[in-house]
Write a structure and sequence with these properties.
Elements (H helix, E strand, L loop, with lengths): L2 E3 L12 E4 L11 E3 L5 E2 L1 E6 L15 H9 L4 E6 L1 H4 L8 H16 L3 E6 L39 H12 L1 H18 L5 E5 L14 H25 L6 E4 L21 E3 L2 E2 L2 H4 L10 H9 L1 H6 L4 E2 L1 E2 L9 H15 L2 E4 L28 E5 L1 E9 L4 E8 L7 E5 L5 E6 L2 E7 L2 E6 L4 E8 L1
Length: 457
């Protein structure tokens, strides 16, 4: 079981130098962090894992054990696994047992390599009725409105009348509400006891219908308030009928990427995670990062309002531009990592695959240009109250300061180390236990003030 706890202040570090978490006067103040069943503060860092190309009998065949072995070897402990309702329930009420077995096999691989998994009910442009993946064609209702494919600008297809109307029916038609809830109850019942499962992302990048005269920001807030909030409460109730322990991840519309605060309301569940995505429209269209535009700062101010108000942790579910080789992308990754560390309990980059485009690594498994900046030392689980945590990339030094838990708390803090030769030291009644390459543990006396330093040799 995992439970939220209140975040604590920490130290700052510049984006140029590296990353810092829980800065003293940062937007993170008042945002809870994730903890595990031993009370340890968790940090999740990882990648989306997907197979969008294959469906039916071949569904998920592109996902292999290698994905999890390689992610863990580079220091990542988290995977957001894309699953598709159209594969799970190809006909109403007929669930694919083969698809469920494949999901189970992937979770077994994740457990073997100590990677936590978020099951993400993914959709792009609603689903196969529009040439994409997600909500089944049988659950797609358009009222005969038009749809024009736009393969060179697929995201604009969300604003086609037929797609927008399909979202309205999903949110408002009682039979579709029941079907979506049954789907989630099935997944939670099947996988709720699996050790690798961290939680459930109820719907990827939800959209809706823009009304005449509305600007996009106004429409997004209305959709989030009036349609997504009830949706998340319904689906959370369905999940809890089968799984009382996992986290419920809820997303705003993608419009949050423009620095627009969400209109989501309260989700009446004790274990909710706010899971926005971190994309810039210009960069998604192929533009370089513009440091002077202030996009990261605007996004951070907007995205931290909801978790502060409703006291829920933040895990960014997707981020990372398509073209990582442009002149300012090195700076983007440095500044993005610093920002994510200030307010979030973790993130999943897009996407762990072997090739070009969005892929994190190439065919040989080597990081693609600038993606290596996502791999750095961090504390996966801290047994106590964090005082500060920061990584100075130029110096190759990670520092963690925390007050160890009391006599009844956990004694062991776990560190993740990316590939390389690292020296780990601890002060303050603490002992370093080096177990394996890429991992270290620190054993602390109850109540001790502990300092951990990780240095690149």
């Amino acid at each position: 079981m995992l439970a939220p706890t209140t975040a604590h202040a920490g130290a700052t570090a510049t984006a140029r130098a590296g990353t810092a978490a829980r800065a003293g006067e940062s937007p993170a103040d008042g945002i809870p962090v994730l903890t595990d069943d031993r009370g340890r503060v968790l940090t999740l860092r990882g990648w989306n894992v997907e197979d969008k190309a294959n469906r039916g009998d071949a569904a998920l065949s592109a996902v292999t054990e290698k994905h999890f072995r390689d992610m863990r070897a580079k220091g990542f402990n988290f995977a957001r696994l894309l699953v598709f309702w159209d594969d799970l329930e190809p006909r109403p009420g007929r669930y694919s047992q083969d698809y469920l077995r494949k999901i189970g096999r992937i979770l077994d691989w994740a457990e073997k390599h100590d990677v936590k998994v978020l099951l993400d009910a993914h959709q792009d442009v609603f689903g196969p009725a529009f040439g994409h993946r997600g909500i089944p064609a049988w659950a797609t209702r358009t009222d005969g409105l038009p749809f024009t494919p736009r393969p060179d600008d697929w995201f604009s297809e969300y604003f086609e009348p037929a797609v927008q109307r399909a979202f309205t029916h999903l949110y408002e038609d009682e039979d579709l509400r029941r079907a979506q809830a049954r789907m989630w109850r099935l997944l939670a019942d099947r996988f709720g006891d699996h050790p690798a499962v961290l939680g459930y992302d109820l719907i990827n990048e939800p959209m809706g219908e823009v009304r005449e005269g509305e600007d996009l920001a106004t429409a997004a807030r209305r959709i989030e308030r009036d349609q997504l909030t009830p949706l998340y409460n319904r689906l959370a109730d369905a999940v809890r009928r089968a799984d009382r322990d996992a986290w419920i991840f809820v997303e705003p519309t993608p419009i949050v990427g423009e620095g627009v605060p969400t209109g989501l309301g309260r989700i009446h569940d004790p274990k909710v995670v706010y899971a926005p995505h971190f994309y810039n429209t210009g960069m998604e269209a192929g533009a370089d990062y513009d440091p002077a535009a202030g996009w990261i700062e605007t996004y951070e101010r907007a995205v931290t309002l909801y978790p502060k108000e409703y006291k829920v942790p933040v895990v960014v579910g997707e981020w990372g531009p398509l073209n990582n080789t442009l002149p300012h992308m090195n700076r983007f990754y440095r500044e993005a990592m610093a920002s994510l560390g200030r307010y979030g309990s973790g993130w999943a980059g897009y996407v762990w695959c072997y090739g070009g485009g969005y892929c994190a690594v190439d065919g040989s498994g080597a990081f693609r240009t600038n993606k290596e900046l996502t791999a750095e030392p961090y504390a996966e689980a801290v047994a106590g109250r964090i005082r500060s945590t920061a990584y100075d990339r130029e110096a190759g030094v990670y520092r963690l300061s925390y007050d160890a838990a009391g006599p009844r708390g956990s004694r062991v803090t776990e560190l993740s180390l990316p590939p390389g030769d690292w020296r780990v030291t601890a002060g303050g009644a603490a002992l370093v236990l080096r177990e394996e390459k890429g991992r270290a543990r620190v054993l602390a006396a109850p109540g001790a003030r502990v300092t951990v330093t990780v240095t690149r040799r």
